[in-house]
Amino acid sequence: MNAEKKRLTRSNDRMIAGVLAGIAEHLDMDPTLVRIIYVILSLASIGFPGLLVYLILWLVMPER
């Protein structure tokens, strides 16, 4: 079986950098749902490490 490998890339359907939309496309989820989950988890954590993770992914994830 030749399964096509999905690459994690930033999406063109972006609000800021396309990171969360790219994750949503990779997981076959709705981008709005991923964004809402990200915001809730970021606000629930102490020190907002979600912002740091987002910035790192922005730098590391390639454009589509």
TrEMBL record:
Superkingdom: Bacteria
Domain Phage shock protein PspC N-terminal: residue ranges: 6-63
Keyword entries, A-Z: Cell membrane, Membrane, Transmembrane, Transmembrane helix
TM segment ranges: 36-60
Membrane-protein topology: Single-pass membrane protein
GO CC entries: plasma membrane
Compartments in which it is found: Cell membrane
InterPro entries found in the cross-reference section: Phageshock_PspC_N, PspC
Name of this chain's protein: Phage shock protein C (PspC) family protein
Organism encoding this protein: Mangrovibacterium marinum
Lineage of the organism: Bacteria, Pseudomonadati, Bacteroidota, Bacteroidia, Marinilabiliales
